[in-house]
Specification:
Length: about 70
């Protein structure tokens, strides 16, 4: 990762399109191709293909905690 000014595409889409990684890709017909992998989903909310992470309380800076009423019903 790098800052936005140095990322591929920061100088426009043509920079991405002309990158050797995408050599031979027909950009005009990109959406006409079927994905090489389609997940088996049980519903629109199915997130079984995502990694599980333990829930953490959101970070609230100390100065904000002093002046904030935190909801306990969430």
């Amino acid at each position: 990762m790098c800052d936005a000014d140095h990322r591929l595409g920061s100088n426009g889409f043509e920079e991405i399109e002309s990158h050797p990684f995408f050599d031979g890709l027909n950009w005009d017909k990109l959406r006409a191709h079927k994905s090489p992998w389609l997940p088996d989903l049980k519903s629109d909310e199915d997130c079984v293909n995502f990694d599980h992470f333990d829930e953490e309380d959101p970070f609230i800076p100390l100065e904000d905690r002093k002046n904030r009423k935190v909801r306990q019903d969430i």
